[in-house]
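Ticket #361: bound-state structure for flavin-adenine dinucleotide.
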Amino acid sequence: MTDEAVDVWVYLQHGKAGLTKDSLELLAAGRKVADKLGQRVVGIILGHKIEELAEKAVHHGADGVLLVDELAFETYFNLEYIDAVYSLVAARKPYVFLFSANEVGKDLAARIAYRVPTGLATDTVQLEVEDWSNPVLGQFKNLLIQVRPDFGTRLAKIYTPRHRPQMATVRPGSFLPLPEDLGRKGKVEKVEIKEGSYPAKVTEVVELPSPVPDLAGADVVISLGLGILRDRTGRPRDPREAYQYAEKLKAAVEDRYHLRAEIGATRALIYADVKALEGLISEENQVGQTGTTVRPRVYFAIGISGALQHRVGMQNSSKIVAINTDPQAPIFKIAHYPIVGDLYEELPKLVSAIGGDGRAN
Ligand SMILES: Cc1cc2nc3c(=O)[nH]c(=O)nc-3n(C[C@H](O)[C@H](O)[C@H](O)COP(=O)(O)OP(=O)(O)OC[C@H]3O[C@@H](n4cnc5c(N)ncnc54)[C@H](O)[C@@H]3O)c2cc1C
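RESOLUTION: The complex was predicted; output attached.
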């Protein structure tokens, strides 16, 4: 599958409230790639009684939609969905196919890539289009460049030069949804897919409560790093003090600005297994490559160095406020409001400045 492949496909998920936030972000990712390629964005939507979602997808950036609207697809069942989506790929040969790097996206994308067969770049945070040449493989025009953090401290660029579609899962939070444009027009095509026969079937879907804390949905994220363990002289501090200030900052933001705030943390702080933080900070608070990707209106990085694996999970925040004793800390390269100083001195001032209680308990 190479030469004849065309179009940038995005797999769109939906829930009771319509297309999910991840799907709207994926449409923006697809739009960026398609515009660079001069191709169309095609949304793939499976489900039952979902016709209005096609129009929504068009308003958010799709040029076309392939709609599989059948009772058999009312609830997600991976075996059936994989067969259906694979049959579309085999018949129509997209150039690029993007999925959200969430539970369903990862489930589908890996199995479809295996069946095609083609490569799959997982957890990408950026997508570009470039020409690429290699002395052994040759020259390739307009390849999808799939950018993701690697296991060390670098970003990896992944190419799929010889197989189509070029497939990637995109980390939620990496792209901003496009504003809704009610005047946009697109071609919606209904596709019939026959119900398959499978040894299992889904009888009930139970929705779990959203994760606590809901970092990805927060307007403001206040994250703590290893710096909370000591003051600037190196003297050990009780990290619960910093945590309490973070809670006061959260309360002040919520009371004064009516924004939803959550407390995040670096992996280093979580893995340090600090007894005093038990029950306060756990893996659910982790922001970064192996935690949650966030894109809040304001991100507070408190006592955080700004290692690449942390940055990729928060660098798209609209505004970044960083407090660090080290003026050379990498976090300052991306901070809009750098505060060089001891968090135990600066954090109380910050809390007071936005109307909270900046006194120690
Ligand atoms: C495969 C892999 C995946 C990873 N995934 C993640 C991930 O998802 N999320 C993540 O966060 N990390 C992740 N990491 C770890 C990452 O590489 C860093 O080790 C980690 O982010 C560092 O955390 P930190 O900033 O809290 O600690 P440090 O790097 O130790 O930084 C502490 C900072 O606090 C400052 N400081 C010290 N005292 C004070 C004070 N009193 N006041 C103000 N500032 C002070 C210091 O100057 C320093 O800059 C991953 C690593 C690998 C290898």
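RESOLUTION NOTES: The chain has two domains: 8-190, 220-353.
TICKET STATUS: resolved
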